[in-house]
């Protein structure tokens, strides 16, 4: 997991049009197949639902919440999202996808603005808000480029992109734009994939890069793009995990308080790929320690200067 990978990725700039097209054709639906409409139920059965239906959104939310169970309290993602603090204030979601998190914030009193580069995501999020009775309540859902947001400086009290900006071909610019539209004293929370993780080390660098010898013909960026979102599918233009050190360098200029946590909700799954049943044999204290050190996600939060 050498830092040289960061330099390699910067030499390859993906076209934003290709990124938007990819996510329009293969949205993150949390279905059994990436971009699909068939969901796995708890008993192993499969259920197919119409995209854009209430059942579709409910199934997508069920899987999203299950994947991130350690982050919930009485509210979904309540251990990281400051809903109460920003109730009644202007909140920006960058990269709304299918609108699951936008709904969570809107239902808890935020004056929400949800944006995405992908027009399909905008259509799906608007449809979700209609189905769940949130349309016409002062929320805004519109297409935007995270590298060039149309909002005035200091427009928002809080901003968050969840698992979005590692798809940006210019992460530093996206972060600068997010910081620009957050008012002084406001705050942000950003989830980015962690390159110093067990998933990256085993699944991408070792298994695919070395054992399957794909590093001979694929760059680190191409490997990360193929074996993260859109797992084992061709065509993902750009997914690049970063390190905590890189995150600190990128975010530090904009914040008076920066906190970086490793979220390891994936650890049980990764250990199961290495050796089936391994996670069940290890003490929970060990698993939690590994999750805090080697988890797949970085949660980067701070207060705007």
Descriptors for this entry?
305 residues; alpha/beta; Rossmann fold; two-stranded antiparallel sheet; 12 helices; disordered N terminus
Topology:
Elements (H helix, E strand, L loop, with lengths): L3 H7 L5 H10 L12 E3 L5 E3 L5 H14 L22 E5 L5 H8 L3 E6 L2 H13 L8 E4 L12 E5 L10 H11 E12 L4 H14 L8 H7 L17 H8 L3 E9 L3 H8 L3 H4 L2 H11 L2 E8 L1
Parallel strand pairs: 3-4, 3-6, 4-5, 6-7
Antiparallel strand pairs: 1-2, 7-9, 8-9
Helix pairs in contact: 7-10
Q: State the total count of DSSP E strands.
A: 9
CATH superfamily: Vaccinia Virus protein VP39
Helix content: 25-40%
User: What's the shape?
Assistant: globular
Helix tally equals 12
* Number of structurally distinct domains: 1
The strands making up the biggest β-sheet line up spatially as 5-4-3-6-7-9-8
So, CATH architecture?
Answer: 3-Layer(aba) Sandwich
For this structure, what is the CATH class?
A: Alpha Beta
Low-confidence stretches: 1-12
N- to C-terminal distance? 33 Å
């Amino acid at each position: 997991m050498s830092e040289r990978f960061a330099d390699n990725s910067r030499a390859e700039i993906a076209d934003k049009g290709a990124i938007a097209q990819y996510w329009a054709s293969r949205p993150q639906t949390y279905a059994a197949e990436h971009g699909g409409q068939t969901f796995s139920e708890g008993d192993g059965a499969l259920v197919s639902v119409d995209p854009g239906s209430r059942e579709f959104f409910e199934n997508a939310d069920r899987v999203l919440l299950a994947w991130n169970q350690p982050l919930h309290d009485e509210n979904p993602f309540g251990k990281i999202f400051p809903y109460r603090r920003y109730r009644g204030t202007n909140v920006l979601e960058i990269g709304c996808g299918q609108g699951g998190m936008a709904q969570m914030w809107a239902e808890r009193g935020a004056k929400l603005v949800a944006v995405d580069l992908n027009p399909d995501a905008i259509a799906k999020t608007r449809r979700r808000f209609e189905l769940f009775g949130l349309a016409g309540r002062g929320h805004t859902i519109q297409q935007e480029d995270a590298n060039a947001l149309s909002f005035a400086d200091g427009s928002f009290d809080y901003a968050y992109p969840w698992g979005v900006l590692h798809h940006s071909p210019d992460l530093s610019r996206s972060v600068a734009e997010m910081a620009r539209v957050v008012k002084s004293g406001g705050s942000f929370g950003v989830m980015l994939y962690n390159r110093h993780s067990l998933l990256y080390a085993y699944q991408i660098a070792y298994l695919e890069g070395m054992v399957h010898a794909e590093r001979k013909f694929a760059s680190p960026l191409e490997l990360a793009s193929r074996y993260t979102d859109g797992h084992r599918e061709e065509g993902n233009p750009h997914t690049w995990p970063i390190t905590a050190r890189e995150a600190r360098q990128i975010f530090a200029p904009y914040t008076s308080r920066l906190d970086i946590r490793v979220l390891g909700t994936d650890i049980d799954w990764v250990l199961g790929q290495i050796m089936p049943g391994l996670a069940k044999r290890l003490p929970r204290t060990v698993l939690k320690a590994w999750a805090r050190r080697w988890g797949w996600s970085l949660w980067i939060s701070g207060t705007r200067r």
